[in-house]
């Protein structure tokens, strides 16, 4: 089963999150692609891609695409272990979870900055990136 994380490739917070996911993904099941990549543009449903504002992580798992807070919760499930504690987040209504997610997403460049170009994976990690 393929599990892909689509992320904003110029966002410093997003790149740090990808680094964190790579480190925590002990089973090496996650693949990654920037939302700016041709791969993402061809695979992710157009309804989830806002080209003017790439402000959501998108996770493909179980044959479906998930965005915003649901994507984060799906990642917690995929990582397993102690991360399953965060699945308690499902108890909060989605509009509250997504509201918090949007607040962080809307301020991420101001708080964490951004780069001029998308992340270039090391040779060792290249096989986990689908760009």
Describe the structure in brief.
The chain is α+β, with helices and mostly antiparallel strands and 131 residues long.
Low-confidence stretches: none
Strand order of the largest sheet: 2-1-3-4
Distance between the termini: 19 Å
Write down the Rg. 14 Å
Helical coverage, percent range: 25-40%
Q: If you average the pLDDT, what whole number results?
A: 89
- Separate helix tally: 4
Task: Give the SSE string.
Answer: EHEHEEHH
SS elements, strand count: 4
Main sheet specs? 4 strands, mixed
| Beta fraction | 5-15%
Broad structural category: alpha+beta
Query: Based on CA inertia axes, which overall geometry fits?
Result: globular
Which short descriptors sum up this protein?
four-stranded mixed sheet; 38% helix; alpha+beta; 131 residues
Per-chain topology:
Elements: E1 3-7, H1 12-24, E2 30-34, H2 38-43, E3 58-61, E4 64-67, H3 68-79, H4 94-112
Parallel strand pairs: 1-2
Antiparallel strand pairs: 1-3, 3-4
């Amino acid at each position: 089963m393929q599990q892909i994380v689509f992320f904003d490739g110029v966002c410093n917070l997003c790149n740090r999150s990808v680094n964190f996911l790579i480190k925590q993904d002990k089973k090496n099941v996650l693949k990654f692609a920037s939302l700016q990549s041709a791969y993402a543009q061809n695979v992710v449903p157009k309804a989830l891609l806002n080209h003017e504002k790439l402000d959501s992580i998108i996770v493909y798992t179980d044959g479906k695409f998930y965005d915003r807070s649901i994507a984060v919760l799906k990642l917690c499930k995929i990582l397993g272990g102690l991360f399953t504690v965060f699945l308690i987040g499902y108890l909060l209504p989605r509009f509250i979870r997504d509201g918090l997610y949007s607040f962080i997403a809307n301020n991420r460049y101001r708080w964490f900055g951004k780069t001029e170009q998308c992340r270039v994976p090391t040779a060792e990690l290249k096989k986990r990136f689908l760009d």
